[in-house]
Specification:
Blueprint (H helix, E strand, L loop, with lengths): L5 H18 L8 H14 L6 H27 L6 H13 L4 H16 L3 H7 L13 H29 L4 H18 L11 H30 L10 H11 L9 H11 L3 E3 L3 E3 L10 H32 L2
Antiparallel strand pairs: 1-2
Length: 329
């Protein structure tokens, strides 16, 4: 097995981002995360009625092992002698792309924005439960807009930043680390609920997801700040972007959500956009700001797209620096 250098790892990350932005998600049949999801579904359906917390822990470890083995197998195949370099790049980039989804994160927001602009509220109520965990039947137009903005900013962390973070952190085994994280993230989304029947079954997965997203969630504030500052350099009519308020609101409201992590990117976004984000009966972020408007969905899409770009550039730089000073002396 040929060990890749830092330049190769950085190029894989950039190519993965290009594939994601241009082509979006691959078909389900050849989507590695869908394979992980099918394994989770199988194990979830086979769960016993007793000792569910122990079974849930074993289930999570099994899925992490499967995902890690998948990532390692890809690396092994891509670095075999005789594999053309361009093919190795494409194989690794394709599988890395499956761990994050910039295009997939922003596309639903654009779709919901269009429906809200056309006042198709019932259509939005049908779509929103796919992206947010709340009762949408009585949400107002303002609350729907807030829900979309919350979803985009929260999912920026576990859907984009965290996989890239772990890829960069683990050097030559970065793809393995990204897949291990993705297994935990997918487990959390499928069984990591605080209500039955998943309270015990998903306990280990939910706690692991909290731990793995702890650092990326806080780093996200820096990238959202950078994105807000960039947008502020090109002011337009309407609400202004407030770079420093993103930090201020993140520090004040970052811990007001039930999750130890989701509050930070959401509060930073609330401050950057100058809007109040609210989940009824649960939390209010940026309470001093005016309520959201439909047009703020376009603003958050722009903000998170730019933050994602900064994330990629930053971690490409991290990979290169690590290659010089750590992995490849």
């Amino acid at each position: 097995m040929i060990i890749p250098d830092s330049g190769h790892l950085a190029l894989v990350l950039l190519l993965a981002a290009f594939i994601d932005i241009v082509f979006g998600e691959p078909p389900a049949a050849v989507h590695p995360v869908v394979w992980i999801g099918k394994l989770i579904s199988f194990l979830k359906n086979a769960a016993p009625k007793t000792h569910r917390k122990l079974y849930g822990t074993a289930m999570a470890l099994c899925c992490v092992f499967f995902a890690s083995l998948l990532g390692y197998s890809v690396l092994y195949i891509a670095t075999l002698p005789g594999i053309p370099y361009i093919l190795a790049l494409l194989i690794e980039a394709y599988f890395l792309k499956a761990t994050f989804a910039i295009n997939c994160l922003l596309s639903p927001a654009r779709k919901i924005y269009k429906h809200l602009e056309e006042n198709q509220l019932e259509k939005v109520r049908e779509l929103l439960p796919i992206y947010v965990s709340r009762n949408t039947s009585k949400l107002t137009k303002t609350q729907m807009s807030s829900a979309v903005i919350e979803s985009v900013s929260e999912n920026y962390v576990d859907g984009i930043l965290s996989p890239i973070f772990y890829y960069a952190l683990f050097g030559e085994l970065g793809l393995v680390a990204a897949y291990a994280f993705k297994a935990i993230s997918t487990l959390d989304s499928m069984v990591g609920y605080k209500t039955e029947p998943y309270r015990e079954l998903g306990y280990f997965s939910a706690k692991s997801d909290d731990v793995l997203n702890w650092i990326p969630a806080r780093i996200s504030v820096i990238f959202i700040l950078a994105a807000a500052f960039t947008i502020s350099l090109f002011p337009k009519k309407g609400r202004k972007t407030n770079p420093l308020d993103s930090i201020k609101t993140a520090l004040e409201d970052g811990m007001k959500t039930p999750s130890p992590n989701s509050g930070y990117p959401m509060a930073a976004t609330a401050g950057a956009l100058g809007v109040k984000l609210e989940k009824p009966d649960t939390y209010v972020l940026g309470i001093s700001y005016p309520p959201t408007e439909v047009k703020d969905i376009k603003r958050v899409s722009q903000l998170i797209a730019i933050a994602s770009g900064f994330s990629l550039v930053a971690f490409v730089a991290v990979i290169q620096m690590a290659g010089i000073y750590l992995y490849y002396p």
